[in-house]
From TrEMBL:
<dbReference type="Pfam" id="PF24654">
    <property type="entry name" value="CEP76_N"/>
</dbReference>
<feature type="domain" description="CEP76 N-terminal">
    <location>
        <begin position="10"/>
        <end position="70"/>
    </location>
</feature>
<comment type="function">
    <text>Centrosomal protein involved in regulation of centriole duplication. Required to limit centriole duplication to once per cell cycle by preventing centriole reduplication.</text>
</comment>
<dbReference type="InterPro" id="IPR056290">
    <property type="entry name" value="CEPT76/DRC7_peptidase-like_dom"/>
</dbReference>
<dbReference type="Pfam" id="PF24656">
    <property type="entry name" value="CEPT76_peptidase"/>
</dbReference>
<dbReference type="InterPro" id="IPR028926">
    <property type="entry name" value="CEP76-C2"/>
</dbReference>
<comment type="similarity">
    <text>Belongs to the CEP76 family.</text>
</comment>
<dbReference type="Pfam" id="PF24652">
    <property type="entry name" value="CEP76_C"/>
</dbReference>
<feature type="domain" description="CEP76/DRC7 peptidase-like">
    <location>
        <begin position="373"/>
        <end position="503"/>
    </location>
</feature>
<feature type="domain" description="Centrosomal protein of 76 kDa C-terminal">
    <location>
        <begin position="531"/>
        <end position="668"/>
    </location>
</feature>
<dbReference type="InterPro" id="IPR052299">
    <property type="entry name" value="CEP76"/>
</dbReference>
<dbReference type="InterPro" id="IPR038765">
    <property type="entry name" value="Papain-like_cys_pep_sf"/>
</dbReference>
<feature type="domain" description="CEP76 C2">
    <location>
        <begin position="112"/>
        <end position="268"/>
    </location>
</feature>
<dbReference type="Pfam" id="PF15627">
    <property type="entry name" value="CEP76-C2"/>
</dbReference>
<feature type="region of interest" description="Disordered">
    <location>
        <begin position="74"/>
        <end position="98"/>
    </location>
</feature>
<dbReference type="GO" id="GO:0005814">
    <property type="term" value="C:centriole"/>
</dbReference>
<keyword id="KW-0206">Cytoskeleton</keyword>
Amino acid sequence: MSLPPEKVAELKQIIHNQLNQMDVHNKIQEVLTESFHEKGRDTDKDQIGEQEILQALREKGIVDDIMQQLQISEGQLEEERSPWQQRPPRKPATHHVDKDGILQSVPLNKANVDPTRRYLYFQIIGGKAFLEHLQEGEALPGYRCSTFTLHLYFRGQRFKSRPVPCACEPDLKEGFLLELHNPKGGDASRMAETSTLLSMSDPIHLVLLKTDAAGDTTLLSSHLLDWRTVLSCDYGRQSMSIELMGVGDENKVPVGIIDVKLEILPIPEQILTTEVITTQVNLERSRISERERLFLVYAKQWWKEYLQIRETHQRRLVKIFAQDENGVNRFVCLFLKPLRAGRLLDTPRQAARFVSVIGFERSSAVGGGQPKEQWSTAHVFLCKNRGDCEDHSVLLCNLLLGFGLNAYVCVGTKVKGAAHTWVATIGPDGLVTFWESLTGHRYIHQPVNPDDPPSVQQPRPQYPYRTLGCIFNHQSFYANSQPSDNVDVCSFDVHDESLWKAMSPDAIKSICGSSSQSLWPHPAPLIPNPLDASLASNDMELQIRALVDDHRKDFGLTTVWDEELSYLLNQALASYELERATGISAGNEEFQHAIRRAIPDGHTFKGFPIQFVHRNAKRAFSTCMRSQVCEEIVCCRGDHVRLGLRVRVFCYPESACAVWIMFACKYKSVL
C-alpha cells in the first residue's frame, strides 16, 4: 500500500531535517574530495562510480551513523504532522504537491565523475529578502501553490532546481557539479590548470522563474555570475550572496538574495591573487567595450548613409539594436547562432512545429502605455517556455541555421500594420520560403512585378506580411533599400547593392565573433522533455471527463461514455499532428472508414477537435465550451446518446508540448 502524497512529503522533510542536523552534506563532500585526490594519483582513465563513493562512505562509518539516526516511528511522524507544533522559520510548505513529477518518465542521470577533469561545485544554501512574497500564504492540502525554480546554464551544461514554495525566505537548497574543461587545443587531454580556468570567461547564467498555481511561468530575474573569484580563495572555496535584480523596466529593483557556495574540485595547486583576477576581468571587459564602441561608431555612419539613399527609409523597420531582459542594448546579430538539436529534432519542419508550440506572450509593462520591446536570451526563452514573436523567430532561425539552411530573421509589419518578425530561407536556386514561427506555417514567396501589364496574371500571396525592413543572421545584416518595402514586390537578391544595403562582415565579426562575446552566454542546447506523453494524456483525459460529467449533471443529464468511439478518435488526432509537423495529410481516409462502421444506421456523429500548448484541463475545457459546436456535443440530448473523448499530448524538447483534444458524440436521429 502506497503512502498519500502529503505523508510522503512530510517523511522526506523529516529525513531532510535530520540530515542537516548531522551535517551529512559536508561529510560526503570531504569523502568525495579525498576520493578525487586518491583516484587522480593512481590513474588517469578510471572514473569514480556511485558504488565506489558508497563504499568510501561505509568505510568512514557515515552510512551507519545515518541509519542509526533515522529511526522514525509512527508517533514521530504524527508529531511532525501536528498543526500545533512550533514551525521553524524556514520550514518549506509540506502541502506543495509536484503533480508533474508523477508524469515524468525520464530518470535522473547519474553521471560518473571523471578524476581527470576539474569541476566547480555550485551549491545554493538558501534564499532571503524576497519581499514581494512576504505575505505568501500556504496552499490547501493537495493543491498547487506558487513555486520558485532556479535554472542554471554554464558552458553547454544546463541544470534545474526542484520547485520550492514561494516565500520571503524560500528553501532553495541545491547543488550542481559544473565541468571545467577546455576541449580545444592541448588542454583537451588533461585537467584544466589555474591559468586555463582564469581564461574561461563564460559566466554562470542564473534564471529565476515563478510558476503560479495555474502552471504559468513568470521571469523574475536573469543574472550573469562571474565565478572566477573563487580562484583566489583558500582551498578553492568561496561563499557569497548574490542579489538578483528584476527584468525589463524593473531591472534596477532587487528581487531577492540567494546565498551560494563555490568550490573547485580537486583543489587547484596554485591560488591566484585577487589582483590577477581583477586585472584579467578588467582586460576582457575593456576589450569588449572598445569593440562595442567602434561598432557603434560604424553603425551610426552606416545608418546615416542608409538614410541618404531615400528619405522614406526613415520610416522603415530596420532593427539594429534590441534590449534583452536586463535592459541592455545588444546588436541583433548577437542573438543568433546555429543551434543543433542533436537527435531531439529530425527535420527543419519538425523544428518549426516545436517552436510554434512554445507559448506566445507579449512583453508587458506596469501601468498603461505601450510596453517596451524585449528580446529574451535563448536560455531565458527556453526556461520560460513562452515569449514574444521575436523570441520565437530567433530560436527558429538558430535551428534552421543548425540544419544547414541559409536562414534570416525578417523584421517588418503584418497586413494590419503591426510590427512583426518571421524567418526566411533562401535556397541555392533563389527560392524564398517564409516560416511563421508562431504557427509553423510555410509560405513560398512569389514576387509580383509591378511593371507587368494588367493582362498578366499575378500570383496572389498567401502570407500575412505587408512590409519588410531588414533581414539578418549571425553573419550578415541587410537593410531593404528597394523603392518599395512591400513584401509582394520585394526581391531577395541580397548581393545586389542597389536593392539591399549590407553591413560590413568584418564589423559584424568584430562584435559577434567567438572571441568577442565571451561575456554573453551562447545559445543553450536543447534538452529532452521529461514528460511521459501517455501518462500525461491519460491524466488530462480523466480530468476533462470529470468536468464533462459535472457540466452535464448541472443540466440534469446523465453521461454514458463510449470507449470504442473514444479510441477511434486517437487516429484523427495523430493525423492532425502529423499534418502540422510535416505539412503532409495522412490517415484521414482510415479514420472516416472506421467512424462509418462504428456509427449505426439512423445515428448521427459529431466531432470537435482543438489544439492547445498547455495541459491545464480546466482552462482548456472553458475554452472549448466557447465553441457552439463543442457545447452542442457536450450538452447533447436525445436517444442513445454516447459521448467520446480523446486527449493526446505530443511532447517536444524542453517542456513544450502540443495537446490535442477531440470531443465527439453519437445519437439516434429523430428526423
